[in-house]
Design brief:
single chain; Rossmann fold; 41% helix; globular
Length: 295
């Protein structure tokens, strides 16, 4: 247990050392966020087990430089409130409040995985403020699954459970993010392990995780994708074990003018496709995107 206590303390210290800001709303409570960079605004809506910390890291990987990155913690994650009656539509409206407070008229909204439903709602509810919509490995209408609530309650709020998985069953945990058939390079394996480590601490993310699994993600099944009227790019790997590629393909057909970007492999993290994603995001904003070192 010494290793567990050490690793959780380190994770909490890492989180505590990160700069973040707070916006207080009478309707939605506290909205926690981080921001950095300069250029066209890009709001990144993080995945399951995320938060503002994950948002900034993901923006660096999948958007790169040249953007003003805005990374909120969604409902119930870290320092953000889970308000009564929370919904993806309400989450979208908090994005609008945040942009108002920051003096941002329009932004690219980038929804990754469980971050997708609220960005879809933003595009529907605030099209005049949506430069473009990016849905990467997003929760979308179609095939989906979720664990029984008692299992989720037990595992998804436990730092110890996640630490045990990371420490003793890393390959099994990795298969939630990448297909078993995908042979990882040492660098890609390091990325997977780093992603797993970023889940800690889990406990302050529990309310958000359960909201995503049992409210936000299921709500996307009934979203009128045909009414989206903003430039949209849907990005998915064919071997994604969490976000079914068929869902992405059908969504791209339903969204008027949407572009489907298909990766043959890469899993939920789009491993090996990071530069391609950056180029797609850059094309939406007019940012000149040169290849990153090593690409």
């Amino acid at each position: 247990m010494i290793g567990y206590r050490r690793d959780v303390r380190a994770a909490r210290a890492r989180l505590a050392g990160l700069e973040r800001h707070y916006l207080h709303s009478a309707a939605y409570g506290t909205i926690e966020y981080a921001q950095h960079g300069a250029g066209p605004a890009l709001l990144l809506s993080h995945p399951l087990f995320g938060g503002f910390d994950a948002g900034t890291g993901l923006a660096a990987t999948y958007a790169g430089d040249g953007f003003r990155i805005i990374a909120p913690s969604r409902f119930g994650y870290l320092g953000s409130t889970l308000p009564p009656g929370a919904s993806p539509a309400g989450q979208a409206d908090t994005y609008a409040l945040l942009l108002d407070d920051l003096g941002v008229d329009q932004a690219i909204v980038f929804g990754y995985s469980a971050g997708g439903p609220s960005t879809i709602q933003f595009a529907l509810r605030h099209p005049d403020r949506t430069t473009a919509l990016v849905l990467m490995a997003s929760a979308l209408p179609g095939k989906s699954s979720r664990p029984p609530k008692p299992v989720a309650q037990l595992l998804f709020g436990s730092d110890l459970a996640f630490w045990v998985l990371q420490r003793y069953l890393p390959a099994q945990l990795a298969r939630l993010l990448v297909a078993k058939s995908l042979r990882l390079t040492p660098e890609q394996w390091a990325t997977v392990r780093q992603t797993e480590a970023s889940f800690l601490p889990v406990r302050p993310r529990k309310k958000g995780v359960l909201f995503d699994i049992y409210v936000s993600n299921p709500a996307v099944q009934h979203v009128p994708l045909e009414k989206i009227q903003v430039p949209t790019v849907v990005i998915n790997a064919k071997d994604d074990p969490l976000s079914a590629f068929d869902n992405a393909a059908r969504a791209a057909q339903r969204i008027p003018g949407a572009k489907l970007v298909t990766a043959a492999t890469g899993g939920h993290l789009l491993l090996g496709n990071e530069q391609r994603v950056r180029e797609e995001v850059a094309a939406l904003s007019g940012v000149d995107r040169a290849p990153s070192p090593g690409q």
